[in-house]
Amino acid sequence: MANHKSAEKRARQTKKRTERNTGSLSKMKTGIKKLKAAVAENDKEKAASLFNANVSYIMQLAAKKIIHGNNASRKVSALAKLKNTING
Predict the structure, then answer these.
(1) In the predicted model, is pLDDT for residue 87 greater than 80?
(2) Which of 4, 21, 22, 41 is the most exposed place for a label (fewest CB within 10 A)?
């Protein structure tokens, strides 16, 4: 446990940030799962809207340094490939 006042504050800040980042990552993963489900159902309109929302959110996370920029680009690329597999 922290012994100095500044170290105690850092521990509090880290805990807050970890909770916030975990929630953000969970939201991202849920969005990706919803997109995959829409693609599995061949629902082109729903998939397109979910794709746009997911890309926007993923890039926001990258801008805030919650995920690495290359990781964000890789996820967006994979989602675009997935979205383009829809027939019809």
Answers:
(1) no
(2) 4
**Does residue 18 belong to any structural domain of this protein?**
yes
Q: How many domains does the chain have?
A: 1
A 10 A CB-CB count for 87 gives 5
Q: 6-15, pLDDT tens digit by residue?
A: 999 999 999 9
Instruction: Record the pTM.
Output: 0.85
Q: Are 28 and 54 in contact (CB under 8 A)?
A: yes
Q: Cα–Cα distance between 78 and 20 in angstroms, integer? A: 25
CA 24 – CA 8 distance, rounded (Å) = 25
Contact between 10 and 1 under an 8 Å Cβ cutoff? The reply is no
Domain that holds residue 40: 5-83
Residue 45 has pLDDT above 90, yes or no: yes
